[in-house]
Amino acid sequence: MYCQNRMVHTVQEGDSLYRLARQYHTTVTELILGNPGVNPYNLQVGMKLYVCPGESYVPPQGGSANTGNTGNSGSTGNTGNAGNGGNTSNAGVGGNIGIGVVIPGGQRPGGNQTAGEMQNSVNQLFETMRLAWLELIYWTRMYMMSVDSGADAKEQYAVEGRLLETADAITDVFAERLPVAVTRQLRNLLVEHVEMTGQIIRTLKSGDKENYEQQIREWYANANQIATLLADQNPYFAGKETRNLLLNYLDMTREIIEHQMNGEYDQSIDTFRDLSDLVLELADYLARGLLAR
């Protein structure tokens, strides 16, 4: 995305995306999209983040250490003049790292699409896939915490509704690159996955261990169905990595839920950090597969 007054923020102690969104009058989503190579749940002091401040943002008097407009390179994580579709895998000052994606297989742009436009399309695919999976685990955690805290039914229902939307967000990333019938099957499986996750959280909270174990088995079977569906459509997904990444995602999510319900909050948070890294890896893998199709 183009930003006329893009700035670079150096992460300080205590910074979070939510704090920076308030400081620069922008949104967490915009910060994530503008920094595709950054783990939003593990900001490091000294890290450089691109920020596109909102219209109401007023710089502090006397200026700031942030740099001004960095050009028209889009939200690829490139620094300075690195833009125009170059390899984004180079680290910027302070460790800001791009996704590292180039046009696959040395393809040349087709039709009226330039190489730069094609590269931007590739970058957008990776960014959108990452955001969709990050939102899935974020809203899963939000729902888990609402159930664990005993929030009223109205709040739980609202959070669960938002969680279900993440299945559509992930499906939308695949929709342009899969047949309609397959996209519909994928959406059904993802909705089923999200509904099962909510059910698992509620069941464990209730203490019904027998039903919990049965639901876990069905949850893993659903993930295997997703892996099989993708493999049937795309040879890139036919290997073990697709299934392994999905099952690892379930393993970590289950661990987070169990830690939370046992009152082991530090362990739950630590595992959530690991899960955020894993889903970024999963998202990039899925995006590469769609490009290889």
How are the strands ordered across the major sheet? 1-2
Number of helices: 8
Uncertain stretches: 64-111
Number of domains: 2
Q: What is the structural class?
A: mainly alpha
Helix percent reads 55-70%
Please give the alpha-carbon distance between the first and last residues. Answer: 26 Å
Order of helices and strands: EHHEHHHHHH
Major sheet attributes:
2 strands, antiparallel
Q: Radius of gyration over alpha carbons?
A: 20 Å
Shape: globular
Annotation, overall tally of beta strands: 2
- What's the pLDDT, averaged over the residues? 81
Strand content: under 5%
What does this structure look like?
The protein has 293 residues and is mainly α. It folds into two domains: 1-100, Roll (Membrane-bound Lytic Murein Transglycosylase D, Chain A); 117-292. Helix content is 59%, strand content 3%. It is globular, with a radius of gyration of 20 Å. This is LysM domain-containing protein. Residues 80-89 have a biased composition (Gly residues).
